[in-house]
Amino acid sequence: MKRLLLAGGIVATGLAGLVAFRGVEQASITGKVSPADAAVAVWAVNANDSTTANVVNGAFSLGVKAGTYKVIVDAKDPYKDASLDNIEVKDGVPVDVGEIKLQQ
Question: What is the topology classification, in CATH, of domain 25-95?
Answer without folding.
Answer: Immunoglobulin-like (2.60.40)
